[in-house]
Design goal:
Elements (H helix, E strand, L loop, with lengths): L2 H10 L4 E8 L4 E9 L11 E5 L4 E14 L3 E6 L11 E6 L4 E6 L3 E4 L5 E4 L5 E9 L32
Antiparallel strand pairs: 1-2, 2-10, 3-6, 4-7, 4-8, 4-9, 4-10, 5-6
Length: about 170
Amino acid sequence: MPSTSRKPLLKDHPGGDKQIRVVDMGKYNMGIGVLYRGPTNDKPGDPIPVLHHDYTAETYIITSGSGILTTGGVIENKKPGTGVPNVMNGPSGTGIAGRGAYSRKVQAGDIVIIPTGVAHGWSQITDHVTYLRVRPDPDRVLPAGWVYPSLLKQLPDEVETNTTAGAGN
């Protein structure tokens, strides 16, 4: 995916979560998105709200900003998601980080892998965190072929290739 297709998306639709596309990879689907988290109003020691995803793991590649990412441990006040699962996450739930959760500062250049079902949540973001999120989907709960609507208007030019090059023609 060329950066030229991501930049207008981020400029025209700043902030929030953007699932860019979901691709059928044969035995599984793969979702890719750009996520943005703005400043949080929490203080050290405050409860940390977390999410968990029932069928999908995710990898975060931090592209700018920094904050505290908490993962793992017991999920207190665990609640299933309500309504129809969204195109970004599939079936998920919420709660509060509990015993055994691990918090660490992450910043641009860091990579974090979050296994399926593991709690994760942000805190102590003073400005922002932007990250590329890659989500393998072995259970195919994300809709293969889905593309962020504004990207459909700016598909890259097709490049003609010579498939017979080197074949003696």
